[in-house]
Please model this.
Amino acid sequence: MSVDGWNTVLVLGGIRSGKSEFAESLVTDAPVVRYLATAPEGDPEDTEWAARLAAHRARRPGSWTTEETAADPRRLADVLESAEPTETLLVDDLGGWVTVLLDPDHQPADDLATIAELAEAIRTCSARVVLVSPEVGLSLVPTTPLGRAFTDALGAANRAVADACDAVVLVVAGQPVWLKPVAAATEPAAPATATAPVGASLADVEPTPEVQLPDVLTHTPPVIPNQEPGNPWAAPTMALPMVATGLVIQPGMELPMPDEYAGPQAVDRLATLDIPGAGLGVLDRVVGFAATTQGTSTPQAWGSVRVLLLHGDHAGGASAGTVAGESARRAAQARAGRGVLARLAAESGASLQVVDTPAAAPMEDQPALSLEQVESALRYGWRLAEQAADAGVQLLVLGACGAGTEAAAAAVLAATAGAEPPAVLGRVISDAGEIDDAAWMIRCAAVRDALHRTRRSARGAKDILAELGGGDVAVATGVLLGATARRVPVLLDGPVGVAAGMVSRDLAGQARHWCLLADHGGHPAVRLAADVLGLNPLLDLRLDLGEGANALVALPLLRSVLALAAALPVHPSLGGDEEPDPAADEPESTDPSYADPDFADPDFADPDFAEPDFAEPEPAGPGPASTGGDEQPASGWRVG
Model:
């Protein structure tokens, strides 16, 4: 067994089920992969079969090595037995292996003995192995002797290999169903941890070698003080597929949906409360949203709030008009508890985490990120949401600061919603407060050129993140998915957050139902994405304080509305009781000598009183908006 909890995985699936693509995704983070091709070349005149083999070869990264084992079916067991612990092997597939095994050129042969040898080699293999095999047990019994021999041999091979493997997954129409999860093959263990001090980079910190299971697990969060048992805020993550590298994030994930009945019930309840006038107006949507995400018709105001400020720059024309180093200055300012975002967070009693995401390459010339970086960024964002949920956070606020973020978001919107770049790119404002049309045109050209470069590229969620989105959008997407899995609502504010919302809907359509948009800020990209996602902005303040700051301005108002809706009684005309008057229970003073000195003596003055100095001192250490007391994510990515 490997230190991660599994050594071998069998991926089953029907024809064109996506089993090979899924198996390849399990080893995408391995630095080097040995691809063991078992299929024979076939008839040279069979062009369709040759095209299939060519497509498989074209999908393999350049760092992979390919070994053909079709010449001798017994060689596969030899390769497995001689593999080193540091290696990763991908066997595709056992159907081809059985075809060669039954070939008359290899007869007479003891098929069952050869299958048993393979299963034993898998059990003793010290390398990490992923095997792909067709699932033929659901088809009709073949009418020919050769067909029956093939299905019998492959069925026996699948059973023997499944018994030998640590985990087995069945892929149906691209959707994995774990038949033999890792948890059933290993003893429960603590999740992987790796503490990252402030200022650490990915190369500085690696997970501890004592890891027994992936570092993203199904949690039972700790009980939050003053929280009733069974509150949906504490609901655990759904069971999701795990591999050695962590969670498998892929299209079509089934994540939780909010309670569709609690929202309308909460809004109907508002009509019964003792509220003068027309009530809460459009802010009744806040009550409905909180009710659906909390699963109750009497939602409470969010107590624990965490702001995630994603810092990542985009190179090339996307950052035109931005002063070099400005985003890094903003991020450092937030870490020190200064600046607009940190001060608003402190006023709201919210904690603040500053997360450095990978810098994106010029999207007009090359992919912004590699697919491996996208996978890591998605899982990293998921872990950030997991850790927030474990800490009792009831609301996440997404913010971003980085050069070129607006252009990257515009490119994502153009790719996912068919928008024209000029229509979703906001005006560029210089440090002097002037409109910079030249920089705006450079940004438009960068987005246009990036879309032209990728016009024939795949438009999957991960492909868009790799080609156009960059690190901040990828991490934000992971945060939205992880928060959805843990039933934690997210307050969006700005182009990066809504771009992540557009991408996340192709991975898990449930994510958008856990998002709330406080204000569009007058940004055209936010307006368009909100319309596509069905997110109606609550306010129209048109603030431009930076992504995340506008949401924090609105947060006290949203909390006040929730607190009011939860505390007010039913109107007396509907059978409600009058609220007791607290002052009526306080006895009046009967002491004739008592008097308030401030009012009894107009000349009263405290000799020790001095006019306060309103000069703002520098913070002495981590304040309410600092992350000094927060648990660091289990990653080497820099978090402040």
Observations:
- Confidence is low (pLDDT under 50) at residues 183-245, 589-636.
